[in-house]
Amino acid sequence: MSEHPASMDGAPDGKLILVVDDEFDVLSAYTMLFEFSGFRVLTAGNGAEALAAARRQRPDIVVSDYMMPVMNGADMCVAWRADPALSAIPIIMTSAGILPRAPVPPYDSFYRKPVAFDVLLAEIRRLIAAA
Fold this sequence. Notes:
The chain is α/β, with parallel strands linked by helices and 131 residues long. It has four helices and six strands.
């Protein structure tokens, strides 16, 4: 886990994105792109790390992979929504694999990888504005 300062002051008010993925290259790419877009970034390598990080420093939004070791994205979402301190924070789920269907998905949005960054960024801004 690491926090990186934003590289562009003011845009979008230094909101904190928690990026959760077990692939270092994905974490690095998202960190660079989100920081360039004015966000602060916190990273975690699995759902358990993400929950611990969010309890220490509350993010404004989460972008998470679905398939990860230790605690996958689905289990993280269930635990996330059960925690009153975190339950209102929007979650965007991403996956390169097949995502099982839940009657009521525990996340706010889902995107199949690879996700076009401008599409992901627009959804992040939309969800943060609605929160």
